[in-house]
């Protein structure tokens, strides 16, 4: 049976480096994606990821085993991203900014931009708390309870954030891609 | 199990999307029960799944998972002798309290045996003294001898 995140973090708390490697391997991808979607560029996301796992390694002995290791890890990423956003100059506004692309090939960049611009822009235009809720909730394998735990809010509060965010996203995507909406009737019921 | 209405089901789908497994745990069973009794609700989930697919793709782009993460500088910052890692490698079966408890029990058992060996020695010494006394009594004509004790 696969080790749970809590099992791994308990081993990390005892200085087990192999367990740390397994924990990093499991979460570095989703954590990196979350940081990138929050901050909008690769270098900031990489710095956040490095700092996050440095804190996991050094603070693991202080982690409360009664809690969720996964939520604890993503809360660290979340808090680091918030700090980074707060530290940015007020003139730099993540909402509506151009996200850097991660592909070096210009043709591929263009094709990808066409496909993703809609949802990129839509998410970027959300208020910060809604953007965090949506980003965390759509990370691989995250459940509503884990996201609420990560954001340190109630499940009811998360529901409210997600409902408003998704309603706004449907509206924005509908404006951007009326043909697609006419074809799939996204969100209509 | 909480009461689930069609209105509430729609609210949850609007908020949490079309995958019931991601809904809050406290609502899930009731939602499943209602869905099994009300097939008309399937399109509600399907409609929410469209936006889910867009957002899942947005968040789980494989390229975003490719990071420049470096582990060694992190592990080096711990520094020093990794005693806990060593202990875990010596005892990879879970909590370190188990071998510690075993050691404590063995120590206590050793202590008790040691104490009892002292008692045993004292008993043997007493028996030897009695035996010697008996020999002396017999040598001197024990039946007639009165020993003042």
From TrEMBL, chain A:
<dbReference type="GO" id="GO:0003677">
    <property type="term" value="F:DNA binding"/>
</dbReference>
<comment type="similarity">
    <text>Belongs to the sigma-70 factor family. ECF subfamily.</text>
</comment>
<keyword id="KW-0731">Sigma factor</keyword>
<keyword id="KW-0805">Transcription regulation</keyword>
<dbReference type="InterPro" id="IPR039425">
    <property type="entry name" value="RNA_pol_sigma-70-like"/>
</dbReference>
<dbReference type="Pfam" id="PF08281">
    <property type="entry name" value="Sigma70_r4_2"/>
</dbReference>
<feature type="domain" description="RNA polymerase sigma factor 70 region 4 type 2">
    <location>
        <begin position="119"/>
        <end position="169"/>
    </location>
</feature>
<keyword id="KW-0804">Transcription</keyword>
<keyword id="KW-0238">DNA-binding</keyword>
<protein>
    <submittedName>
        <fullName>Sigma-70 family RNA polymerase sigma factor</fullName>
    </submittedName>
</protein>
<dbReference type="InterPro" id="IPR013324">
    <property type="entry name" value="RNA_pol_sigma_r3/r4-like"/>
</dbReference>
<dbReference type="InterPro" id="IPR036388">
    <property type="entry name" value="WH-like_DNA-bd_sf"/>
</dbReference>
<dbReference type="InterPro" id="IPR014284">
    <property type="entry name" value="RNA_pol_sigma-70_dom"/>
</dbReference>
<feature type="coiled-coil region">
    <location>
        <begin position="148"/>
        <end position="175"/>
    </location>
</feature>
<dbReference type="GO" id="GO:0006352">
    <property type="term" value="P:DNA-templated transcription initiation"/>
</dbReference>
<dbReference type="GO" id="GO:0016987">
    <property type="term" value="F:sigma factor activity"/>
</dbReference>
<dbReference type="InterPro" id="IPR013325">
    <property type="entry name" value="RNA_pol_sigma_r2"/>
</dbReference>
<dbReference type="InterPro" id="IPR007627">
    <property type="entry name" value="RNA_pol_sigma70_r2"/>
</dbReference>
<dbReference type="InterPro" id="IPR013249">
    <property type="entry name" value="RNA_pol_sigma70_r4_t2"/>
</dbReference>
<dbReference type="Pfam" id="PF04542">
    <property type="entry name" value="Sigma70_r2"/>
</dbReference>
<feature type="domain" description="RNA polymerase sigma-70 region 2">
    <location>
        <begin position="24"/>
        <end position="89"/>
    </location>
</feature>
<keyword id="KW-0175">Coiled coil</keyword>
UniProtKB/TrEMBL annotation, chain B:
<protein>
    <submittedName>
        <fullName>Uncharacterized protein</fullName>
    </submittedName>
</protein>
């Amino acid at each position: 049976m696969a080790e749970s995140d809590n099992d791994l973090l308990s081993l990390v708390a005892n200085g087990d480096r192999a367990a740390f490697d397994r924990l990093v391997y499991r979460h570095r991808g989703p954590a990196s994606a979350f940081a990138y979607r929050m901050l909008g560029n690769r270098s900031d996301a990489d710095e956040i990821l490095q700092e996050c796992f440095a804190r996991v390694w050094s603070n693991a002995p202080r982690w409360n085993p009664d809690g969720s290791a996964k939520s604890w890890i993503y809360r660290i990423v979340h808090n680091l991203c918030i700090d980074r956003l707060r530290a940015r100059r007020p003139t730099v506004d993540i909402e509506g900014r151009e996200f850097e692309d991660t592909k070096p090939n210009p043709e591929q960049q263009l094709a990808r931009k066409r496909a993703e611009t809609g949802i990129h822009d839509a998410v970027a235009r959300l208020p910060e708390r809604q953007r965090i809720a949506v980003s965390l909730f759509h990370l691989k394998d995250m459940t509503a309870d884990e996201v609420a735990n990560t954001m340190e809010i109630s499940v009811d509060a998360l529901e409210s954030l997600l409902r408003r965010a998704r309603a706004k996203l449907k509206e924005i995507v509908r404006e951007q891609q009326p043909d697609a909406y006419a074809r799939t009737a996204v969100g209509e019921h | 199990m909480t009461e689930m209405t069609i209105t509430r089901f729609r609210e949850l789908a609007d908020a949490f999307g079309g995958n019931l497994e991601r809904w809050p745990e406290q609502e899930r069973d009731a939602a499943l029960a209602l869905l099994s009794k009300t097939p008309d609700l399937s399109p509600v989930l399907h409609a929410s799944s469209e936006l889910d697919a867009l957002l899942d793709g947005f968040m789980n782009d494989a390229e975003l998972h490719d990071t420049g993460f470096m582990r060694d500088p992190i592990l080096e910052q711990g520094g020093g002798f990794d005693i806990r890692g060593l202990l875990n490698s010596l005892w990879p079966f879970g909590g370190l309290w188990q071998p510690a408890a075993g050691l404590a029990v063995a120590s206590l058992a050793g202590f008790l045996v040691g104490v009892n060996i002292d008692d045993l020695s004292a008993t043997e010494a007493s028996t030897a003294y009695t035996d010697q006394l008996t020999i002396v009594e017999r040598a001197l004509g024990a039946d007639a001898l009165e020993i003042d004790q």
